[in-house]
Amino acid sequence: MLPSHSAELEGLLDGLAEGLLRYAPEDGSFPLPASGAHVYRNSRSETEVRPTLYEPVVCLVAQGAKAVFYGQEVVRYDPTHVLVSALDLPLKAQVLEASPKRPFLCLKLVLDPVELADLAAKVYPEGLFPAAARPVFAGAATPALIEAALRFLKALGDPKDQKLLAPLYRQEMLIRLLQANPVLAQLSLLDPYLHRIARAIDHIRAHFREPLDVETLARLTHLGKSAFYHHFKRLTSLTPLQYQKALRLQEARRLLLKGFSVTQVAREVGYTSPSQFVRDYHHFFGAAPSRDIARLRTQGGLVLSEAG
Question: Whole-model pTM?
Fold first, then answer.
């Protein structure tokens, strides 16, 4: 039961959960027959946080609850709070409420920054007052947003509607999201550094194995080095080096689980010193590589918490 929320809202959420379960017969992430749309399901609450790569995304929860850790903030999302991430970010996440009978269920839509900025300008044609906004936040999940999501899922079930109506309902979802959460429009329209830092992030992700070149990143963003560093940390909560290190270590964990040796993995993700790699790995994951991988294999769980 959702306190202080109507039976109508609960009915909408039940319908959303039913629609999502059709596409997620078991735990995991499942692509929908629409570009950039996925369903994520998890039947177990988690006792520890897990590293997660979040792309620009909106996550609408039908049941259960999850949290992401952004800097010093804990951002919880659940059936009344939608998660919005406006940048590619290496975060940590934890499923807080889930069970086999009521698994955590989430509809994930990948955001196109250009489309979002265009819609924000239409939703707020007279503009918005500048305000501090973070690229990761939990916004209001309104009945209008959930209704649009239900129409979107229904349209996916018909081949004709899938082509003609599903894209319109997806766009309606974004409009409802912007209407209920002006902070997202403020990010898209008023933060002049968001798109610049996104370009730097794209470069780091494409070249994370290579030595970090801050001068190149600053040039890409048309900023001086100190200004680039300031705005990168303001928006990501990480320094450029910390961001690169998170990418390297998450990829390293994936490769270690495939059976590659520590030396092979260290070299593959860009380390010249295996001993430095082991120290960084221990600091990031809380255990040495061999112990961490043995524990993960015993648990048989996901290596990276799904971004959903």
Answer: 0.86
